[in-house]
Design goal:
mainly beta; Immunoglobulin-like; Methylamine Dehydrogenase, Chain H; 6-stranded antiparallel β-sheet; 5-stranded antiparallel β-sheet; 4 helices; 45% strand; globular
């Protein structure tokens, strides 16, 4: 979620300038002194041998609705639009935004370099036809395939003593930055749509493949309309988080004991803002808890016994300020994730939000920390990636059940993705581009019965980012929210499987869809005993409120776990799923955390769900 004191409106980006030229026959000398009609938002560029495929976001800041918006010229350095030389954007509501996508010639531009970007065109602002110009800068992604050496950082351990500390109000802003990356449109690559749609059933219900629900319970703690639940189960404890609270139970059922993170950890430079991610690490019998602060992150660790004996307040923790990773103080970190490997815990986040100090490195950062050092509770010696290597992964998440290699990925375009891998045996991470069939990167929208577009937030952020990822042997599964076309007339989940043992070749591309309602926010995990992929995601629209659903890929059934009765335009930004580590369950059950909406404020209705197969095989 995009919060924190460093945040600014998504209508502002670094190195941004914009002007508004009056009259279609005007010249650049006729620039008005008043603010312009449009500002430049997130951008994306896919570099090919003979062309640049570009996407730019136009934010309507005129104070009036805009119609007949056209981009007539678009330049990056010396590259310019090729046919068609006019990009018809259409209408942009007051305060809204739209994406213009086009192809430029390659010119003499070099990958890994930053160039000036300028777009000019015309629009009808209210009733007056005007010209506009927006400008900024854009960095061309590195050449693929490629690799880079990870950097190192260390953080001393601290221990919570004397909790509870005085409660503090989290530093949270309702302003939404949106994204720094939007997906360009590449040349059409044909594919075969999934024929079977995904039906809905109310949980708990069995179906022919034998889905069993051990638990589907309300956590019983409400929050704002944006919950972003995360959690895990281990050692007799279920520990979960939402944006402003944590909670745990020792019997897998309510009541959950609520915790205020600001009373568990002392007030310091890291502070506390919002996003939280939780994992349980069976190999060291420890929960790891990543909390977003105002100036970096805090990683905390505790065993189930420590959580029980300390009433959830006894933790070993490490402060991770932005300066620890070579970024200026005050650099915006956001949208965290956690994954557990054989020997490391992996953290990720977006780096250098708009409004961050000059000199920060914009992109997506991955940090790994040894499990042995987390278990010992001493100094944490970490490795981390260079964010700008992963600019197209903005808003992405890490691969789950990842074993001896961590993976992350982003879209170069709607026909190409860049996949990153980092084996535990080396300090070098690498990337390669993988072609996929064309998918729909257009606007996602879905309306609830009370007229709310519950995908309004998703459409801006995390957008089409790859937020579902899991590993199943040599298979890497990647999933994201996609738009509509003639086959899928509602927004849907797009998913590909890559063979990491055979050049990362695509082995399948499928869709989770139903033309009666929309799907989005996919999270994935792997069942070890059945070799299946389980999903936790959201559905809604077309006469349905937004609700949390779970299921297995291939069943074509999604089970509804919540019962929303009100819509929201600020739903988001993720739900979670973990493979349940209980030995008696044999790796065939999952712990999922999602939420619906209740009209009492409205507030979130967060659920803990444990579901799986009745047997292996």
């Amino acid at each position: 979620m995009t919060h924190g004191p460093w945040k600014r409106s998504h209508q502002v980006i670094s190195l941004l300038a914009f002007v508004f030229v009056a009259g279609l026959g005007g010249s650049s000398s006729q620039v008005e002194a008043t603010p312009g009609a449009f500002s430049l938002g997130a951008t994306g560029v896919w570099v090919q041998p003979r062309a640049l495929y570009v996407a730019i976001t136009l934010n309507n800041v005129s104070g009036l609705p805009a119609s007949a918006v056209q981009v007539l010229t678009l330049r990056i350095g010396g590259a310019h639009l090729v046919a068609p030389q006019t990009i018809n954007v259409g209408a942009i509501r007051k305060g809204g935004s739209a994406i213009a996508r086009g192809a430029l010639n390659r010119a003499a531009l070099r990958t890994g370099q930053t160039y000036a970007l300028t777009a000019a065109g015309s629009a009808r602002i209210g009733t007056t036809l005007r010209k506009f110009v927006v400008s900024g800068s854009i960095r061309l992604p590195n050449t693929s395939p490629g690799e880079a050496r990870a950097k190192t950082a260390s953080a001393p351990a601290h221990h919570t003593k004397g909790a509870p500390y005085p409660a503090r109000k989290p530093s949270f802003s309702d302003e939404d930055n949106g994204s720094r990356w939007v997906v360009p449109t590449g040349p059409t690559m044909p594919g075969t749509p999934t024929k079977l749609h995904t039906a809905l059933r109310k949980a708990p219900h069995g179906d022919p493949p034998g889905v069993t629900f051990n638990t589907d319970v309300k956590v019983g703690i409400t929050g704002s309309t944006v919950a972003e639940p995360s959690g895990a189960n281990g050692g007799g404890v279920v520990f979960m988080t939402s944006n402003w609270y944590a909670a745990y139970t020792t019997n897998g059922a309510p009541p959950f004991t609520q915790l205020n993170p600001t009373t568990i950890f002392p007030s310091d430079a890291i502070g506390y803002c919002c996003d939280q991610i939780v994992q349980y690490v069976p190999s060291i019998n420890t929960f790891v808890w990543l909390l977003q602060g105002n100036n970096g992150y805090r990683l905390a660790a505790a065993t189930p016994a420590q959580i029980i004996s300390g009433n959830g307040t006894a933790w070993t923790y490490w402060d991770l300020p932005s300066t620890l990773f070579g970024e200026p103080s005050g650099t915006g970190f956001d949208y965290p994730d956690l994954a557990v490997g054989n020997n490391y815990v992996y953290m990720s986040w977006d780096t250098c939000w708009p409004g961050s100090p000059a000199g920060c490195n914009s992109g997506h950062m991955i940090v790994r920390a040894p499990l042995s050092e987390i278990q010992s509770g001493g100094t944490l010696n970490m490795n981390y990636t260079t964010p700008s290597d992963s600019t197209m992964v903005w808003g992405g998440h890490l691969s789950q059940d990842t074993g001896d290699t961590i993976f992350w990925a982003g879209h170069n375009s709607n026909t190409s993705m860049r996949v990153f891998s980092w084996p535990e045996s080396t300090g070098t991470y690498s990337w390669r581009d993988v072609g996929v069939s064309s998918w729909d990167n257009n606007t996602m929208s879905s309306t609830t019965p009370d007229g709310q577009d519950w995908m309004s937030k998703l459409n801006g952020f995390p957008g089409h980012a790859i937020i579902g990822a899991t590993r199943l042997g040599s298979q890497l599964w990647l999933a994201w929210s996609a738009g509509t076309d003639k086959n899928q007339t509602q927004p849907h989940v797009e998913m590909v499987t890559l063979d990491t043992s055979n050049g990362y070749n695509k082995t399948q591309q499928v869709q989770v869809w139903n033309n009666s309602y929309a799907f989005g926010y996919p999270a994935l995990a792997t069942a070890t005993c059945t070799s299946e992929v389980a999903m936790s995601f959201e559905y809604g629209g077309n006469g349905n409120y937004e609700n949390h659903v779970v299921g297995f890929w291939g069943d074509y059934v999604a089970y509804i776990t919540t019962n929303s009765n009100v819509g929201s335009v600020r739903f988001g930004d993720y739900v979670t799923i973990r493979q349940d580590p209980t030995k008696s369950l044999q790796g065939r059950f999952f712990d999922a955390f999602g939420y619906g909406m209740d009209s009492s404020s409205p507030t979130t209705d967060t659920h803990y769900v444990q579901f799986g197969r009745s047997k292996c095989g």
